[in-house]
Design brief:
alpha/beta, 9 helices, eight-stranded parallel β-sheet
């Protein structure tokens, strides 16, 4: 298993080429290349030419830091056909950048719109028809997160959609701080509110689950749904946070013990990413805390 840092909190204070050095200084051996204005920005065409890609790869080599995964966020499941077609073009360039960086893992979000779930699912599979041959030819492993406000948010439903692609090159991401959005109706079914059906989702995914993000969040269902109040009531919003471990309501013993039970820690293709975005003013301290705490939990539960 690779343990990586998502350097997003450092994007504003350091240049793209400085990030590998920051990650190394914080004690991590790997980074996750998340959307960056100079590389693969959110929703738009990648902005890096071959020269910048080569410079970033050299910067990682010089810092002794590997790239565990490349994370584009593009509208490949958007119900708007023009946007979907553009996203497929952007994906092709993102795949080439990943290959040129010497990386074989990409992770992303389902995208699409929950209020147009059927149309978005059609768009997702349409995009896959064009991208999957390239993904398989290049030996890329793409792992997908059912992100809050995507066309599929429920963890078990995400497994079904991924399974429908029918390719070993497509897997799943589980994000700790998305737990309370991944199990609609969990409380009504009598499950723990602390993560809904986290164990059920992880166990059902099995070796399809190949990347996890570690960040905490408050349970927005708590206090009978009144922990967070939006006005007017009934707004179609999704609320979550990316806090450090222990600052929220995620059941971390269940999270890490279940990963141990499914053999996540002992697989060469698994990636664990610290992805705390809510405490940029203390990003250095928090990143070190995350690494130490993740290692403690892994050592506690390795072997199931």
């Amino acid at each position: 298993m690779k343990v990586a840092l998502d350097p997003t909190p450092f994007h504003h204070d350091y240049s793209l080429l400085e990030l590998p050095g920051v990650v190394a200084e914080l004690g991590y051996e790997y980074l996750q290349l998340t959307p960056h204005v100079d590389m693969i920005p959110f929703f738009n065409h990648p902005k890096a030419d071959d020269a910048l890609v080569a410079k970033f790869r050299r910067a990682c080599d010089d810092a002794g830091v590997g790239i565990a995964s490349v994370l584009p966020v593009l509208r490949w499941s958007g119900p708007d056909e023009d946007a979907r077609e553009a996203a497929v073009r952007y994906w092709k360039r993102a795949i080439q950048i990943t290959v040129d960086l010497g990386v074989n893992v990409m992770n992303t979000e389902f995208s699409g719109r929950p209020e147009k779930a059927e149309e978005s699912e059609r768009a997702f599979y349409r995009s896959m028809e064009e991208l999957l041959p390239i993904i398989e030819r290049e030996g890329i492993d793409v792992r997908i997160d059912p992100h809050p406000d995507d066309f599929v948010e429920d963890g078990l439903a995400a497994i079904r959609v991924i399974r429908g692609v029918n390719s070993r090159n497509i897997g799943m991401v589980f994000v700790g701080c998305h737990s309370f959005h991944m199990a609609p109706g969990a409380e009504r079914a009598g499950r723990s509110s602390a993560g809904g059906n986290m164990r059920e989702i992880m166990t059902a995914a099995g070796d399809m689950l190949r990347l996890v993000h570690v960040a905490d969040t408050m349970d927005h269902h708590a206090s009978h749904g009144l922990r967070y109040i939006t006005n007017p009531p009934g707004n179609a919003v999704r609320v979550h946070q990316h806090l450090k471990i222990g600052d929220g309501d995620v059941d971390w013993d269940e999270f890490f013990s279940t990963l141990g039970e499914i053999g996540f820690y002992d697989r060469d293709d698994s990636v664990m990413v610290s992805s705390v975005f809510a405490e940029n003013e203390n990003a250095h301290e928090v990143s070190r805390y995350q690494l130490a705490t993740m290692n403690e939990y892994v050592n506690k539960y390795r072997g199931g």
